[in-house]
Write a structure and sequence with these properties.
By secondary structure, the protein is α+β, with helices and mostly antiparallel strands. The protein has four helices and four strands, in the order βααββααβ.
């Protein structure tokens, strides 16, 4: 699996609950349509382990079969629509991509 990992923080004028509801609601409706999307996991962050990790609201991991499939999704009209929906929202994000390796499964 090749993943796009997004760590995001809400706009300052939004509550955590509003941001998560939007991310898992209206924004999710656009995300589901990304071509080649094979899996999507979303984690609502409710606590930071340490002070330097504070200030984040959620993590999305979008899975694709290959880097090429992710690149196609990022070039798609569906991705453009999702980006347009975010617009000039004043939240923060970190976006990274890479190959997944399962390290443990119980």
């Amino acid at each position: 699996m090749y993943n796009l990992v997004l760590l995001a923080a809400r706009p300052p004028e939004w509550t955590h609950e509003q941001f998560i509801a939007w991310w898992r609601g209206d924004h999710a409706e656009l995300t589901y349509r990304l071509p080649g999307l094979r899996a999507w996991r979303h984690t609502e962050i409710d606590a930071a382990l340490e002070p330097r990790s504070e200030g984040w609201d959620g993590i999305s991991v979008l899975g694709f079969d290959s880097p090429e499939d992710l690149r196609k999704a990022l070039a798609s009209p569906e991705w453009a629509e999702a980006v347009a929906q975010v617009g000039d929202m004043k939240g923060r994000r970190i976006a990274v991509m890479g190959h997944e390796a399962e390290m443990f499964a119980a």
